[in-house]
Amino acid sequence: MTQQFKTKQNDDGKICELYLPLMTNEQFAAYHHQKATERREKLAHFQPQIDALENAASRGKAVDIDLTAMIKQGDIDLRYENGLMIMNASSNTNSMLTPQNFTMPLKIEMRAKTEIDNIRIDYHKGCIIFDVFCNYGELDVGDFVSGERCQYDGDGRIPPDEFVNIECMIGNDILFVKVNGELRHAGNHYEYIQKIKENSLLPAPVRITPSWDSTLTVQSLRVTEM
Description:
The protein is of the alpha+beta class. The chain has a single domain, classed as Jelly Rolls, CATH 2.60.120.200. It contains three helices and 17 strands.
């Protein structure tokens, strides 16, 4: 299979090559179906906890974030068009912050698209990153207390230049992530879970962090405390 690639320089100055495999629609559909089947089998035992958490979220206090009221942190090329928040950044430490602080457990819902890669949601020390640059298709999940990152190959694929619905559920006993209703990740091994039980985490804003070389467009953002 032929490939195209481009070079990218990340924050520590490292130059890397991002390979983008050229697939036909049929090949991509087959690959996506295979990954989805593997995920369903691997994560099936989490389903009762996922159902319980979604039920709790349906009774929670939802806040639809005013995108124009979000707070710029760092150097971000930002504009608003037709209700959309469109942005680029020079570093992954530059973010747009919600004006409100939120307390875990919570649900984060975002409808967004990326020009190339890297859709990132941050909260406390943790993050959820789709299509991590230099690791095409990877999902990165950073613990919200320790910041320790776990990588899941193939679970972070986001089609470029196409709006997707992202759901991140940060629960008392489990964290899970969905894209367009499809479960991409679930886990209960994160350190933040113990901190929630100890009630030792302060409220904090949700942050949206664009990639330095890929335009990120956000249509909506909603946060629900449970």
